[in-house]
Structures are given as structure tokens and as C-alpha cells.
Q: What sequence folds into this?
């Protein structure tokens, strides 16, 4: 039985906000380094954030259909611990990267999700996000429980999509994910995390876990 749900906050853009999230005990910080997103940051900003992310907290670079050269350049320059891939990257491409990767799946049907989960045997985890045409994450739309591949994946599963400080505890109870990936639901505006919402979300995750682990 899993005792704790891991917490990743994605789309971080500000050093002080990252420091705050780390102080609350989050497990991973996500930086959008190659995507059509209002949360896209420069390598220079990412390096400043790297300096305040301590040991045992993962710094994750998020990419959408970036070239190997772009990804490897960010890994080396920023000092990424993990790569998160949100495009049409293949298993053959992904497994050659120099850092472990998480593959994001945009869920359309349970058959498609199961097929895509099995297509990435070298992934360290699978992130499941609702399919929204033309968007690759940060949509604010919630995942349908019917599309959650709990019985079809041998990989740790990360729940994304429409998570907020108000619903993350309930969603953990419903889905029992390995981790949650929070982004737009914690923002006062795109790319700006609200410190009170971040703190509330972390508390809700801890509460959901404590209820789940009661005898």
C-alpha cells in the first residue's frame, strides 16, 4: 500500500515561489522549457531556480516535441533531474535521453490510454492528462475517472488536469495516484502561483493520505 502521494507543481516561473513550494515539502518542481505556453521560461531563469532547489527535490524540465539537442542542452545547462515529454515523442527517442523521463498521455479513450501506457516501457512514470485539442497541459480541465488506467499500467501513474487546492484531496481519494501534478489550478494568473493556494493544496494532499492510511 502506498503511504504518500507525491506532489509536483508545474509551470513554476519565480524563484521565491519555488522556495515557498520547497519549504512546504513538495517533491518536484516543473519548468516549462519548450512548449507553446504562457509559463515558458528561459534557460537563464531556469538556472536561477535550479540554485534554490535542494537535494531530494526533483527539478523537471517539460518539453513538447523538442529536438534531442534542445532537451540535452537544457539538461546540461540547467541541471535537470528528470524530463517530462508532452508531445508525440516515441519510445525509441525517449529512451536515448541522458536523464530519466516521464511520458504524458492525453487521454481520449481507455483503449488509447492502455495502448499508450504500454508503448513506453522505459518511462519512469506515466502522466495522464485529459485530451484538449491543440493543448498539451495546463488546461484546467479535469480527467474523467473512466479514463484512468489503474488496471492497465505497470508504471507509477501521475494524475494531472483540473487539480486545485479545493479538489486535489477528493481526486486523490478517487484515483489513488502515485503522484499529482498541479499547475493552473494554483495560479492567480498564468505563470504566477498563489502562495496560499499552494499551501492549501499541499495540506489537502497530506490530509487525503492520512485518511487513506487510517486502519
A:
Amino acid at each position: 500500500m502506498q503511504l504518500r502521494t507525491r506532489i509536483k507543481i508545474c509551470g513554476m516561473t519565480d524563484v521565491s515561489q519555488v522556495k515557498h513550494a520547497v519549504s512546504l515539502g513538495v517533491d518536484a518542481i516543473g519548468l516549462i522549457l519548450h512548449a507553446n505556453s504562457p509559463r515558458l521560461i528561459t534557460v537563464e531563469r531556469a538556472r536561477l531556480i535550479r540554485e534554490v532547489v535542494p537535494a531530494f527535490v526533483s527539478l523537471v524540465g517539460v518539453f513538447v516535441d523538442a529536438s534531442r539537442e534542445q532537451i540535452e542542452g537544457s539538461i546540461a545547462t540547467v541541471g535537470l533531474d528528470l524530463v517530462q515529454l508532452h508531445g508525440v515523442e516515441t519510445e525509441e527517442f525517449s529512451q536515448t535521453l541522458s536523464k530519466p523521463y516521464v511520458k504524458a498521455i492525453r487521454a481520449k479513450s481507455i483503449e488509447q490510454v492502455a495502448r499508450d501506457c504500454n508503448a513506453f516501457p522505459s518511462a519512469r512514470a506515466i502522466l495522464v492528462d485529459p485530451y484538449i485539442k491543440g493543448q498539451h497541459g495546463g488546461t484546467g480541465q479535469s480527467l474523467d475517472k473512466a479514463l484512468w488506467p489503474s488496471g492497465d499500467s505497470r508504471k507509477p501513474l501521475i494524475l494531472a488536469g483540473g487539480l486545485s487546492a479545493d479538489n486535489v484531496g477528493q481526486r486523490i481519494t478517487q484515483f489513488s495516484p502515485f503522484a499529482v501534478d498541479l499547475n493552473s489550478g494554483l495560479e492567480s494568473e498564468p505563470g504566477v502561483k498563489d502562495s496560499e493556494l499552494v499551501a492549501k493544496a499541499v495540506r489537502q494532499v497530506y490530509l487525503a493520505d492520512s485518511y487513506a492510511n487510517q486502519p
